[in-house]
Automatic annotation (TrEMBL):
GO terms for biological process: riboflavin biosynthetic process. Gene3D superfamilies: Dihydrofolate Reductase, subunit A (3.40.430.10). InterPro entries: DHFR-like_dom_sf, RibDG_C. It comes from the Bacteria. Residues 6-177 form the Bacterial bifunctional deaminase-reductase C-terminal domain. GO terms for molecular function: 5-amino-6-(5-phosphoribosylamino)uracil reductase activity. This is Deaminase. Pfam families: RibD_C.
Amino acid sequence: MTGRICIDLFTTLDGVGQGPGGPEEDTSGGFRFGGWQAPLPDDMVGREVQAGMEHMDALLLGRRTYDIFAAYWPHHVTGEEGGIGRLFNRIPKYVASRGNPELGWEGSSLLGADVAAAVSGLRERHADVHVIGSIDFVQTLLAEKLFDELKLWVYPVVLGQGKKVFPDGAAPSTLRLLAPAVTGDGGAVMLRYAPGGEVATGAMDA
């Protein structure tokens, strides 16, 4: 079995993926727009998120996102969010960290220091691994092309500051569109990409 690594990110039109879920999610760098996603509901996003979880059998998270999830999801296993909570609590959770944090959420373990080897090991053990948020850790996966699908939910908002999905200094690369864009009534757009190849240049009049 060769499993998939799928990155799921919510982003603004100017590419900011920092702190979509709440004011205190990630205030690093003086970020003051935490929770920017909440006032922009879109039914399409909810449907597509649910559909994408149908075959998920593991989570791969950066340390900050892990702490947020571990504090929230074990206590939300009923009601509207109950299905997601039960799934997250049931499946294995792998955490990328430079330190040696205490991982109290049942089913959690630390990712190996050799990220490429660790991701290869996850592919052998799982069919559908999802990386949610974790924008700092995602930079490594993108730069090393250690993913099979990058799923972006792009929202109609511009922040002008914050950590970007592709910041200055990102590794040059192309991406391959996997399917036509899906748009929602609230203005969000879902884009699905696979890793591409090298960046080529040329003249438009050639």
